[in-house]
């Protein structure tokens, strides 16, 4: 499990696990650290995809199906063992949704809460437009494209590291574009509450469709900042407090 999951603070007595899915090109260095910031009731797992960090020598995932199969096969025992919630940011949102849909359909398992961040609802026009967007081959053009859709952050100056980040982001975006969601065939897929977060200075996302994905409550919160508002310490603290309150209010 250590290959797929980063868990920097093990909490065997936790009531619930929070499974975090990073953004395109991201690793576990930011969200895994949340494990030190939550209280003892929540244990944090951060998903590590192939092609980065300790999995640098592995080939990138080919499509969303391969990601879903790996996550569910590795984590199924843990997900059956105790309640779990998902937090996902940007393109990682669709990975978390693909996993959640698979768990519900095949195993009857559902998160107690879905925390989604800075992404179009999967049943929206904005999501379809993003999926069909052609990806430029040239690095600078690709970065400009990512910036246009809100998903760019400050890149390292080192050229080799920069190229690796761009390559990883490109491959993760290709995986996202293989995510299939047909709302008409699914009725209402979830019954858990859904909370959507975004940055006040980020691009505008097509988000009202989140209400159609669950029979539970849907809430929307805006934080000061851009697409990566969650990396600001003040926002991070508020996010963690809010997520903790939502999870602890669920009848576990």
UniProtKB/TrEMBL annotation:
Its EC number(s): 3.1.2.14
Domain Thioesterase: 17-244
A single MF term (Gene Ontology): fatty acyl-[ACP] hydrolase activity
Pfam families associated with the record: Thioesterase
Annotated signal sequence range: none
A GO BP entry: lipid biosynthetic process
InterPro entries (UniProt xref): AB_hydrolase_fold (IPR029058), TEII (IPR012223), Thioesterase (IPR001031)
Domain of life: Eukaryota
Family listed: Belongs to the thioesterase family.
Protein name (Swiss-Prot/TrEMBL): oleoyl-[acyl-carrier-protein] hydrolase
């Amino acid at each position: 499990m250590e290959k797929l999951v980063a868990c920097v603070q093990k909490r065997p007595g936790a009531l619930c696990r929070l499974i975090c899915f990073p953004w395109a090109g991201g690793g576990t260095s930011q969200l895994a650290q949340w494990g030190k910031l939550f209280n003892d009731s929540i244990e944090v797992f951060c998903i590590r995809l192939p092609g980065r960090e300790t999995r640098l020598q592995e080939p990138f995932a080919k499509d969303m199906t391969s990601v879903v199969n790996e996550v569910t096969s590795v984590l199924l025992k843990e997900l059956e063992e105790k309640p779990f919630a998902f937090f996902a940011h940007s393109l990682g949102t669709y990975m978390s949704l693909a996993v959640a849909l698979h768990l519900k359909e095949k195993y009857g398992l559902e998160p107690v809460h879905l925390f989604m961040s800075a992404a179009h609802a999967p049943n929206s026009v904005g999501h379809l437009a993003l999926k069909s967007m052609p990806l430029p081959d040239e690095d600078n053009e690709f970065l400009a494209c990512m910036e246009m859709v809100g998903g760019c952050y400050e890149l390292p100056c080192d050229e080799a590291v920069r190229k690796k980040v761009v390559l990883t982001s490109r491959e993760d975006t290709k995986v996202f574009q293989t995510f299939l969601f047909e709302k008409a065939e699914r009725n209402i897929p979830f019954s858990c509450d859904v909370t959507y977060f975004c940055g006040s200075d980020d691009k505008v996302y097509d988000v009202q469709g989140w209400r159609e994905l669950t029979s539970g409550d849907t809430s929307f919160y805006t934080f000061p900042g851009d697409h990566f508002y969650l990396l600001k310490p003040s926002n991070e603290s508020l996010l963690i407090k809010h997520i903790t309150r939502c999870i602890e209010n669920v009848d576990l």
